Amino acid sequence: MRRGKFITLEGGEGVGKSTNLQFITGWLRDRDIAFIQTREPGGTPLAEELRELLLCNRDEAVDPTAELLMVFAARAQHIARVIEPALARGDWVICDRFTDATYAYQGGGRQLDRTLIAQLEQTVQGDLRPDRVLLLDLDPQTGLARAADIGAADRFENEQLAFFLRVRAAYRERAEAAPESYAVIDASQPLEQVQRQLQTELERLVLPTSE
Ligand SMILES: Nc1ncnc2c1ncn2[C@@H]1O[C@H](COP(=O)(O)OP(=O)(O)O)[C@@H](O)[C@H]1O
Ligand SMILES: Cc1cn([C@H]2C[C@H](O)[C@@H](COP(=O)(O)OP(=O)(O)O)O2)c(=O)[nH]c1=O
């Protein structure tokens, strides 16, 4: 059985992840490609509980290393219970955020040591890396304005602009360092253009498996 493709969707707040996830899953459905859609933090009952703990606003200041370890605890569970089994049975995995978000939010935003993140990545993931990271890139002012209309702000959304500027810079840095693994899509474009680019990326991914 050929392994499925592992695709992650990344970007700051309000870049259009939810909107474009629907587009991506619709595209896969139209082509009868078996897939699962999941998200991080989350994707299993335990990991969703950890997500709640990570996102809820609280009076106690959260130590950045504690935050980082919780993110990877959720990820370990998600990989073992959901992601690996799906890929092994040949399903594609479409994941709303993954480890690039850790480099961006805990590395960039919280300014944690990237070496520590890389060590945890290695321990928790082994060789598992996304086949392609779809990075929706947008200036945080625009993204936060878009997100402001949707629900109450969680613990991350309540951060200052400087935090989100570091998040964006960290994402872009990672994409620039390994362009073969990333598709950087300008999310300030009209949705139609964003989705045209997403479609081109998906078509590229499907080619080798349809020989
Ligand atoms: N390319 C775009 N141009 C303008 N508005 C957009 C675009 N993409 C998404 N939006 C709008 O921005 C808001 C946030 O989008 P959403 O998909 O919920 O973002 P996220 O899941 O990244 O927070 C929604 O109101 C959505 O309709
Ligand atoms: C996966 C991941 C997410 N996060 C943060 C980024 C987001 O602010 C938050 C997840 O929320 P998000 O994916 O934006 O969901 P929603 O659109 O429903 O708010 O978790 C990290 O800080 N590190 C990580 O490794």
UniProtKB/TrEMBL annotation:
Its EC number is 2.7.4.9. One of its GO terms (cellular component) is cytosol. It comes from the Bacteria. It catalyses: dTMP + ATP = dTDP + ADP. One of its GO terms (biological process) is dUDP biosynthetic process. GO terms for molecular function: ATP binding; dTMP kinase activity. CDD domains: TMPK. The keyword Nucleotide-binding applies. Keywords: ATP-binding, Kinase, Nucleotide biosynthesis, Nucleotide-binding, Transferase. ATP binds at residues 11-18. InterPro entries: P-loop_NTPase (IPR027417), Thymidylate_kin-like_dom (IPR039430), Thymidylate_kinase (IPR018094). Residues 9-197 form the Thymidylate kinase-like domain. Phosphorylation of dTMP to form dTDP in both de novo and salvage pathways of dTTP synthesis. Belongs to the thymidylate kinase family. This is Thymidylate kinase. It comes from Microbulbifer rhizosphaerae.
